[in-house]
Amino acid sequence: MTIRDLQPKLIWEQFDDITRVPRPSKREEKIIEWLVAFAEKHGFDYSKDATGNVVIRKAATKGYEDRQTVILQSHMDMVCEKNSDVEFDFETQPIETYIEDGWVRAKGTTLGADCGIGMAAALAVLLDESLEHPAIEALFTVDEETGLTGAFGLGEGMLEGKYLLNLDSEDEGELFIGCAGGIDTVATMEYNKEEAPDSYAFVRLEVGDLLGGHSGDDIDKGRANSNKLLARFLYNACDTFMIAVERFEGGNLRNAIPREAYAIVGVPAEAVEDFKERYMEFGEELKEEFRHTEPRMRFSVTDVENPAEVMNNDDMCVLLLAIVGLPNGVLAMSHAVAGLVETSSNLASVKFNTEEAKITITTSQRSSVESAKLYAAQTIESVFYLSGCDVEHSDGYPGWTPNPDSKLLQKSVECYRALFATEPKVRAIHAGLECGLFLEKYPHLEMVSFGPTLRGVHSPDERLEISTVDKFWKLLVELLKNLD
Predict the structure, then answer these.
(1) Which of 336, 360, 393 finishes a domain?
(2) Are 371 and 414 in the same domain?
(3) Same domain membership, residue 189 and residue 158
(4) Pick the catalytic residue: 13, 16, 77, 249?
(5) Which residues pair with 400 in a beta bridge?
(6) Is the same domain home to 403 and 367?
(7) pLDDT of 365-378, one tens digit each?
(8) DSSP string, 198-213
(9) How many whole angstroms separate alpha carbon 478 and alpha carbon 10?
């Protein structure tokens, strides 16, 4: 069985087609062309703005002409993460999907169901002639994952609808009416090099197989940050072993909890066996510390050739102090919404440019309170400034303030209750959605976000629960039929 054999067939066929089109963030040219070709093939009116966003329109069915236009919104880009032992080119290769134990997964890479399944649902609505619905505007935005570029740059006059259904949520049975805002804080550190000591032996230290995940949805699950773990060991080893560091790298994307990190480290040759033994002992200690949240945590150490140069000792110490000192994880829980993370920070990646002797450290802060978001960014900034780094902040994006009295929410709850004889959960989410930016451009919008169940998002463990796609589809169809 392939995913094209699953039900509802139309939505799964669209999803399978989407997985075959490369669509990394900021490199969405192929999926944009594919969407335009889809609209032209089926005779739909469409628009494309200068940013790359695409809107495909479908007229209301008979008897629904006087109802409010509904916007079906999803983003076309995907997070491109893979396991370190997998060879894969996200710009040319299709995602390899498979079915296992009631879930759809990808072979060693992210699946792209975030937000490919939302795209598939919108396309299925456009294609299904049996549905009853008002006029539809299917909005597909670019670069949601690395900067919300599409939502920021949405062209004037692209939308006319009153109701917006954001199809980018990951928990079936939950209706989202608010989200956190976010900002990135990026530091650049220049360092001095010195000749690697001849009397040293060098090894490659690795930590891997962490669960990682979405830096919004999963930040409160107690998962380890690979950059933090590796820096923690090196910080402790500085005095005992007189270490020298050639490089330290970990993590990739600003919105993913880093799963892997490595460092090239030297110690006096007579101490190298003790050093390797201590690292593996440290790994066992951390496996015990994180036994409830990191079942696959892996530590390894291998011998490597001596590099010609290493970091100056003072600069190495500054780097380790900065990484150890950076706030990371949940910073505050909400007092307004029980169980909701209010503010967090993610130490996303550490990247070395040995040719230019520069290090780039990327972090991401989120909060449902604007002032708290800015203060979180300042706490990160202050550590970086104390470390002598140059610091830049992204423009950031606003949160989405909940409107519990909206007609759209009330109708969504009614439809869910009628379909499944149970109450959906109505809540806000710590992850960022594009809805806050849409409200800035179209303040009249009423919005709700929902979707099927996804797990392991932004990591190669990403998976989509098959049974929840049918419920997602039924709710979408019922809601379109009943909105007025």
Answers:
(1) 393
(2) no
(3) no
(4) 77
(5) 179
(6) no
(7) 999 999 999 999 99
(8) TTEEEEEEEEE-----
(9) 16
| CB contact at 8 A, 152 and 437 | yes
CATH for 66: 3.40.630.10
Give burial (CB, 10 Å; 0-12/13-18/19+) of 463: buried
239 and 162 together in one domain: no
Choose one of 355, 377, 393: the last residue of a domain.
393
470 is catalytic: no
Q: Is 336 strand, coil or helix? A: coil
The parent domain of residue 326 ranges over 183-393
The pLDDT value given to residue 170: 93
φ, ψ at 120 (rounded to 5°): -60, -40
Contacts (Cβ under 8 Å, ≥6 apart) of 318? 189, 387, 388
Give me the percent of the chain exceeding a pLDDT of 70: 100
What CA–CA distance (Å, rounded) separates 248 from 237? Answer: 15
Q: Angle at Cα 483 formed by Cα 479 and Cα 484, nearest 5°?
A: 170
117-136 burial string, b = 16+ CB within 10 Å, else e? bbbbbbbbbbbeeebebbbb
Lowest mean pLDDT among 36-45, 136-145, 301-310, 432-441: 432-441
Whether 233 and 324 have beta carbons less than 8 Å apart is answered as: no
| 319 in the same domain as 461 | no
Q: Are strands 341-353 and 358-367 parallel, antiparallel or unpaired?
A: antiparallel
pLDDT band at 62 (very low <50, low <70, confident <90, very high): very high
Determine the average pLDDT of the residues in 418-447: 93
d(CA 297, CA 290): 9
Single out the residue of 212, 204, 245 nearest to residue 228, CA to CA.
212
Phi, psi of 144 (to 5 degrees): -70, -35
Which pTM value belongs to this model?
Answer: 0.82
Amino acid 402: pLDDT: 87
Q: Which pLDDT score is estimated for 30?
A: 98
Report whether pLDDT(419) > 90.
Answer: yes
pLDDT digits (tens, 9 = 90+) for 259-270: 999 999 999 999
**Which residue out of 16, 144, 249, 461 is catalytically annotated?**
144
The pLDDT-based confidence of 404 (bands split at 50, 70, 90) is confident
Q: Are residues 25 and 51 in the same domain?
A: yes
- 77 is known as an active-site residue: yes
pLDDT on residue 336: 79
Give how many domains the chain has, as a whole number.
2
